[in-house]
Design a protein that fits this description.
- The chain is built from nine helices and no strands.
- The protein has 241 residues and is mainly α.
- The longest helix has 49 residues.
């Protein structure tokens, strides 16, 4: 909004003169700070606010986590042992759980939800003739998949399989905004890699599980179109224990 008013200030339009509280020349001559000094100060002020809000929120959430940790440790170890342990490791453990342990568990759970959702819906689109003909048949037209064809599909399939699955995973795992951005970006990169057409020994996406470019390529071939439904992360639903 301030940019809009600044554009009005520098426009030089005469019809605005009757609405000005101060003349443009008065603004230039009487103000002791330049525009760039003001912009920089405002940026610093906004960053300070954001940092303060983030720090205050993190502190509150860590305090809640600490109280939960105390209750859990008391029930597992007993009052005396738990308090001795928490005196030594409590702050360190709370910090690790808040910044690493819980977020990692949330992401892993979200990946499992995405895989589960996509496997059963993907399989249904192959076993149901109507869904396959009207919706899913678009994607398998790429018998020789390549990277930017990874998301080549029917718009309905794109929404149901990818977008809706990620939204469900976000809600089920209680992901933050940053975690959700990571989930969407990571899922997209993994899907692109699965269709890249290269089996690279140094590709980290292809090293993370058996669900890689080789594995998914089989699904695009006539011989494998009724198998290898799992995507995009793991293969446990194709080969249940």
């Amino acid at each position: 909004m301030s940019l809009l008013f600044h554009c009005l200030d520098i426009s030089g339009s005469k019809w605005l003169d009757k609405y000005r509280i101060h003349e443009s020349e008065e603004v230039k001559s009487r103000n002791l700070a330049t525009h760039w000094e003001v912009v920089w100060a405002v940026i610093v002020h906004i960053l300070h606010k954001l940092c303060w809000i983030s720090v205050a929120r993190c502190q509150s959430e860590m305090e809640d986590l600490g109280r939960t940790l105390v209750l859990v440790m008391r029930s597992l170890l007993g009052e005396e042992t738990a308090m001795k342990f928490l005196e030594l490791r409590g702050p360190e453990m709370t910090h690790w759980l808040y910044w690493w342990g819980i977020p990692a568990a949330q992401i892993l759970f979200a990946l499992f939800i995405v895989d589960t959702w996509q496997y059963f819906l993907h399989r249904l689109m192959h076993t149901n003739k109507y869904l396959y003909k009207k919706i899913h048949s678009v994607h398998p037209q790429l018998y020789v998949p390549y990277a930017f064809g990874a998301l080549y599909n029917h718009p309905v399939e794109g929404f149901l399989l990818d977008s809706l699955g990620a939204v469900i995973a976000e809600g089920a795992a209680h992901l933050s905004v940053r975690q959700t951005i990571f989930l969407f970006a990571f899922s997209t990169c993994k899907t692109v890699d699965d269709h890249c057409g290269y089996s690279l020994p140094f590709d980290p996406f292809q090293m993370m599980s058996g669900n890689n470019a080789d594995y998914h390529d089989i699904h695009h071939q006539t011989i494998g179109i009724k198998s290898n439904f799992s995507q995009p992360f793991f293969i446990h639903w194709d080969y249940p224990p």
